[in-house]
UniProtKB/TrEMBL annotation:
The keyword Transferase applies. Belongs to the class-I pyridoxal-phosphate-dependent aminotransferase family. This is Aminotransferase. Keywords: Aminotransferase, Pyridoxal phosphate, Transferase. It is an enzyme of class 2 (transferase). Residues 6-124 form the CobE/GbiG C-terminal domain. Its EC number is 2.6.1.-. GO terms for biological process: cobalamin biosynthetic process. InterPro entries: Aminotransferase_I/II_large, CobE/GbiG_C, CobE/GbiG_C_sf, NHTrfase_class1_PyrdxlP-BS, PyrdxlP-dep_Trfase, PyrdxlP-dep_Trfase_major, PyrdxlP-dep_Trfase_small. NCBIfam families: PRK07908.1. Pfam families: Aminotran_1_2, CbiG_C. Its cofactor is pyridoxal 5'-phosphate. Residues 144-460 form the Aminotransferase class I/classII large domain.
Amino acid sequence: MTHPSLTIGVGARSGVPAAELLDLIDATLTALGRSRSEVARLATLASRTTEPGLLAAARALAVPLIGHAAEELAAVPVPNPSAAVLAVAGTPGVAEAAALLSTDPGGQLLAAKRKSASATVAVAGPGPDLRHHGDAEVRSGGLVDLAVNVRTGTPPDWLREHLAATLADLAAYPEGSTARAAVAARHGRPAEEVLLTAGAAEAFVLLARVLTPRHAVVVHPQFTEPEAALRDAGHRVHRVLLSAADGFRLTPGAVPDAADLVVIGNPTNPTSVLHPDLAQLARPGRTLVVDEAFIDTVPGERESLAGLRDLPGEVVVLRSLTKTWGLAGLRIGYVLGPAGLIARLGAAQPLWPVSTPALAAAEACSAPAALAEAEAASHTLAGQRAHLLRGLASVPGITVHGTPAASFVLIHVPGAAELRTRLRAEGFALRRGDTFPGLGPDWLRIAVRDEGTTDRFLSVLSALVQN
């Protein structure tokens, strides 16, 4: 039996007939491929909760009718605001806002507002699984890994040997000052503006625990851990959804002025889009968090904010050694930001949060020779990505939106879920896209690999799509 999980947001004129409202709800559910049995509640403006038509519809569906004050609804960003509704009801959206406000945390709009003569409805429901990541695609083994964006052939031999040499020091507690100084020198910052962490994931948790935002915004589609960490810490998260029609670029005005915490990836996972001039988002009273986990896959690390120290507000940059150096299992990353905030984040860490081998990796990968190797790898990657894009352009039905700049490419293809299953049967693992807010079941992410691997994949992909 299907567990009721859908919220129907309702906007209605006085005197709306229950039959009209139920017909509109049924039509909206049918368009989604859903049914009345999946509806958990109706939600509307508080002043409409005594409307006979709405009460009768709620009884017919055997669900509660929930009311929200206009000021509560007005605080919810909606995709289709109305000046006319704002003038009458005191909020630019009722149906969409009520649906979003009443659904479970992390929920999303499944159907935008739909109108009849006297009513408007929208549907919200559970959002994507924010804890699903690419490693889940390859746990069964025996597959060509196009799901995880870690550079193949890593860690390099010199780094393996360097890490192995630290095993003799494991009896001593970790001491991070040398590694911290090396990272600081690499970015031209004082050591007080650097915090070493057990991967970027720990940094997201620390930020969520330490910051107290009133209006937190996460720009999607992007890596889902920042939103998951914020929600786990009890923060309400507003999503800014970038559009495929705009090439997943950040458009002017997309981030609301009221946002006092903004989280964005650059280049963004999974879109691979590199956003220009993110410094424009910095302002007094705002914490801007830029996830640069993939910036070292971009030649010259262009558009990085890591070296900028004089921007307004608090600008925080997160880095990871996972992708370029193949250290996902070691857990090493770092945060760059104002010294005061870095101190607060550090105070929230447990003792000895980063292991001795991880500290050694941070120091070694900040050295000039390592930086030169990473830069060379980014140029090689650019050629491999161009090869993949040329091949994808020849496969019918596949679309790439925007300009990929990182170690992966996001594609749109009808029937992606079935295609992904068939590709697994042929030995290739791809990352599903439907767990990223703002995407859906017709999206897949493909890791960039060497030309030979890419050609074998493209041959199988083309055959499956055409058949």
